[in-house]
Amino acid sequence: MEYRLINDEETWDAILRAHNGHPMQSWGWGSLKEQTGSWMAHRVVCEDGGKFVCAAQVLERKLPWPFRSICYAARGPVTERDEDVPRAADLIAEWCRAHVHAVSLKIDPGVSGIKLGDGWKEGNKILIPNTATLDLTPDEDAIMASIHSKKARQYIRKAGRCGVEIRVATREDLPGIMELYHNTAEQDDFFIHEDEYYYKAFDAMADVNQLFVAEVEGRLLAFLWNITMPAAAFELWGGVNDEGKRLRANYLLKWHAMCEAKKAGAKLYDLNGLFNDGISKFKMLFVNEPTMWIGTFDKPLSPLFAVWERALTLYRHFFK
User: Fold this and answer.
1) In what residue span(s) does the N-acetyltransferase domain sit (predicted)?
2) What CATH number has the domain spanning 2-128+293-319?
């Protein structure tokens, strides 16, 4: 088994597109994490006799001595088939042990019904495993018919009749988008980053961004920010104002995003995470039932992992 590091954006994203890689494994997502946090991205391909076995964008974060570092592969590893994930997870973990001397590797692959190998243990969640997904492989008429709620289908059409228009957002739209996002976060009580984070995301993730705005007569009503590759379209951020809710702009916006993801070749639309809140109830109007991925798992790679885990627990207890 041979490991190969990829240091070119075009080459890495081509590998992901060819082998079912999630957009959170994209070069742009890794670049964003490098620019906005204490992460370093390693793009690793594992091959057997020159044949692809698996890949992962491994984010490494340095830790205080003597722990060295921890690693995280968001929605990784990348494999041809879901059933190959357990072997791939072990191979990427071994790379992390040998090459960055990490105390652990964390993964949260978007797969169901898979059991990882020995040594893996459930870890603290970063991405929510309980989500809502829609199959994008049928034609648009079939996808529309598959939307669970008749009301949702009616509201999609109503928004169009009310003059709501959807377009691709530009960088010049970001100030208005951020104002709308702050208002939505305040109303629905969820965390958002500083504005600079989203400006950097717009530039860093140009390889996978699909950012749309809904308007009526030039007034911003809603936005939806997805990242998309052939494996999936993944909703990151969104918001809607009161006028947008009244005109059902968020329904048409989501439908338009699904259609554009399909045109981009995505096989799955992931509405990203379900909580017990109004936003999740809105998401569930589009699907028949929730999707449950296997969750978040850690692979200890050093005896120091137990010490690090205990230290982290104490830190959260006293400084939360």
Assistant:
1) 164-320
2) 3.40.630.30
Q: What is the pLDDT of residue 314?
A: 57
Please give the class, per CATH, of domain 131-292: alpha beta
**CA dist., res. 177 & res. 222, Å (int):** 8
DSSP annotation of 19? T
CA distance 269 to 219: 27
Burial class (CB in 10 A: 0-12, 13-18, 19+), 7: exposed
Instruction: Please say whether the beta carbons of 72 and 42 come within 8 A.
Output: no
- Please list the ranges in the chain whose pLDDT falls under 70: 312, 314-320
- Dihedrals φ, ψ of 26, to 5°? -70, 160
Q: Is the pTM for the entire model greater than 0.90?
A: yes
SS (H, E, C) 204-253: HCCCCEEEEEEEECCEEEEEEEEEEECCEEEEEEEEECHHHHHCCHHHHH
Specify the pLDDT at position 220. 98
Q: b/e for 185-220, b at 16 or more Cβ within 10 A?
A: eeeeeeeeeeeeebebbbebbebbbbbbbbbbeeeb
Q: Where exactly are the structural domains of the chain?
A: 2-128+293-319, 131-292
pLDDT at 203: 98
How many residues does the structure list for the chain?
Answer: 320
Could you give the CA distance from residue 40 to residue 17 in angstroms, rounded to a whole number?
22
User: Are the C-beta atoms of 98 and 39 separated by less than 8 Å?
Assistant: no
